[in-house]
Amino acid sequence: MQVSVENIGTLERKLTVKFPAERFETQVTARIAEMGRTVRLKGFRPGKVPTTVIKQRFGAQVRGEVLSDLIGSTLREAVEQEKLQPIANPSINTTGQPENGEIAYTATFEVMPEFPAIDVSGLEINRPVAEVTDADIDKMLETLRQQRRSFDEVERASAEGDFVMFEYSAQAGDYRFPAEGMERAGSVLGSGNLFKALDDALLTRMADDSFDTEIAFPDDFRNEELAGKTAKVSFKIIKVQEPKLPEIDSEFARLFGIEDGDLEVFRKEVRANLERELKAALMARLKSEVAEKLANTHGELDVPKLMVQSEAQNMAAGNVPRGQQPPPQLIEAAMPIAHKRVIAGLLMGEIARKQSLVIDRKRIAEQLAAIASTYEEPEKVIELYNGDPQLMSGLQNRVMEDQVAEWVAEHAKTTQQDLSFDDVMRPANA
């Protein structure tokens, strides 16, 4: 077998491999002989199918399979021989035809970059810390009350927090919505489901009220014919309902799985859930901080284009409905951030390798338990992960990233940042 390597880019390699055509023909002959002993064809007894018939019926298929197998095995040998690290399956190009007694093919792929020495001692890391307080638990209980609220119809003017059902039509120039009749809708006033001008129009209204008013629709309104325009809107109030909040008592606790209704047990459960969420959010912030600082410090690192493209594709896919392909412009817009993410991910992997970090099995079990606890049948989720190598691999990678982030924080110039529970849980872009 002859092997040669050509650098066709910073990280792109073109591997040319040649192997004896005789090796190929020998394996084809052996495969056809094997089929002669096992294949069943109408009109022939088992094991008695003539070789010429097998070649005629299956020859092209066998030659294709043998060529594919030989390319796979010789490629593995060649990559190992040349000490290369392809990041994905190579692109193979071959005629498959012998020439001068040899069959040749080329394999084009990207390899892992050569990493610089990674010194984290100069990195300035802000590490957020926070704890769950009694006030946070009270706030969560109030949120749970709001989620379990009911509404009772009232004969008074609407106020913030009330549910209002109404019918409406909007006229902007020659455009009318709906084209005929009225559209029915409903919303809790002040909830943010409607834009403020519409909320304000529905305040202090009673059932059976009918009225017209001018409303300026926001630029991002879902109806493009009304977005950014002022329209005459006709309303009819169908009904007004006021919220009724449940008491936080034993019956309320039972709604959340506390069988004996013990409120102290209920509060402990709420605290445990909040602490689990807080721990995950704190780690996510630390990982983001470490990744950002690593990527900024080593922004010149060459990384495989395929990895950046794949990351940008995944990022863009998160911004379109599930099952739809993101448009090219959305993928292109994600490329700069994807590039930084790939740099950070590769550097964190290199730190784990250089520092010989061993994955913490206890953390794996804890994270898996945390994931499973959010489902109705946690034991089935744990069983699913344990039986799916891909899911388990993803979990292990996340845990290793946690460990790397903590290692960097321990060896960098790290400043503790005291935050409240709400500060931590608030989205980073809020």
In short:
α8 (328-354) crosses α11. Strands 6, 7, 8, 9, 10 and 11 form a 6-stranded antiparallel β-sheet that branches.
Descriptive overview:
The protein is of the alpha+beta class. The protein folds into three domains: 2-110, Alpha-Beta Plaits; 124-136 and 253-425, Trigger factor, domain 2, CATH 1.10.3120; 150-244, Chitinase A, domain 3. 47% of the residues lie in helices and 20% in strands. It contains twelve helices and twelve strands.
Number of domains: 3
Helix percent band: 40-55%
On the 0-100 scale, what is the average pLDDT? 93
- What is the CA-based Rg, rounded? 33 Å
Amino- and carboxy-terminal Cα gap:
60 Å
Helix/strand-derived class?
alpha+beta
Largest sheet: 6 strands, antiparallel
Do you know the CATH topology of the largest domain? Trigger factor, domain 2
The number of distinct helices, counting runs of at least 4 residues, comes to 12
- Name the poorly predicted regions: none
Per the principal axes of the C-alpha atoms, what is the gross shape? extended
CATH class of the largest domain, named: Mainly Alpha
